[in-house]
Design brief:
Shape: globular
Structural class: mainly alpha
Helix content: over 70%
Order of helices and strands: HHHHHHHHHHHHHHHHHHHH
CATH topology of the largest domain: Growth Hormone, Chain: A
Number of domains: 2
CATH class of the largest domain: Mainly Alpha
CATH architecture of the largest domain: Up-down Bundle
CATH superfamily of the largest domain: MFS general substrate transporter like domains
Largest sheet: none
Number of strands: 0
Number of helices: 20
Length: 433
Amino acid sequence: MASRNSLLAAIKPYFEAGPLGALALGMASGTPYAMIASTLTTRLAESGIDKKSVTAFGLALLVYSFKPLWAPLIDRVRIPVLAALIGQRRAWLLVSVIMASLAITWLGLLDPTADLALFAAAAVAVGFAGATLDIVVDAIRIEWLRADQMGAGSGMTQYGWRMGSYLAGAGALLLAAGGSWALAYASAALLFLPALLVAAWLGEPERPPAPQSGKGLAAAVRDSIIAPLADFLTRPGAGIVLAFVLVHKIGDTVCQLSVRLFYNDLGFSKPEVAFYDVSLGLFGYLGGVFLGGIIYKRIGLAASVFLSLLLMAVSNAAYAGLAIIGHDVWAMAIVQGFENLASGIGGVTIGAWLALLCDRRFTATQFALLSSAAAILGRAFSSGTAGGLIESMGYVNFYWLTTVLALPGVLIFAWLWRAGLVVADDNAAATAS
């Protein structure tokens, strides 16, 4: 009975108002990304655009990496009239949804064969609007959630993101099959409605007043850019925390970049990859997201993050084992399922910790910085060296290397935990103060 009550207590946050709101916000966040990722690629290929030009449109997604540049505006700027009526955060949510809806509709109305440069500009506009919406969504859901809801809220955000990107992508293709890309793109805007309804239901999130050091440009720079950085960097252990954020995903990012090439070289067929990697892998990831929220609630913040880091390192080592075994669909299913499960758990627990690291006076700015920093080194390393390493080392040694690359994150977090700079009590701040 005690075990049953404990499980129910761990599941309960998924059905509370804050995490349910995070689900709707995540759906809105995933929609613009889908429209300039797979959907855009399909449309360009259908239009007969050459492959080099099609892949170049991936640069529209690069805009997401630069969102820390304008995140301070969302923390500081109050939209005239609208902010007074509905609050600063909800005003930005409404404006960013309108921006994304207009940009997506504009992209749908254009013909890529008529003016490819204008079409590219519209794709970048969708990327900018989507990145802005991401900043707003992250800030609102963090400020809506209590500390003990952060794990479930992080998981629900990921569920919503997957749901929004799937519905936007699949729905656009189905509507376009009827002959109208313009209708397909415009209809994607309907996926923003749940976020607006939830914002009306839950209200403006409460947050402490932002610092006001004076008037003029110099004061604005101090308050919107320097103050958030100073707040983070002057905390005990801030340098070690930042080092963790920068390195903890390198091994996983480098590993995942090569997986499809690895499967091809092992001789797995496209149907095998589609079933065991894409289909079953998705269920493994979604299961990991749900399990991650429960683990976070059951064993606490620090222990759940540490467990996630260990699982992610082991999942990299599992690919080395598969490289030794060779073409075996059951081994592939186990390895890929475990990797997706570990990624889902890690996404929830580590995402919750990064959210708790943010001072709520600067939520948008600090979370944008942390989430972007978490990916930058892995992307830089993998894009420049992964292929050459595979050719020189072979897959077995390459995947052992990615396991080793995951260990600094594990060791740094263990040091932070031992030093008392990660608080295991979910009702406390994430860092010692």
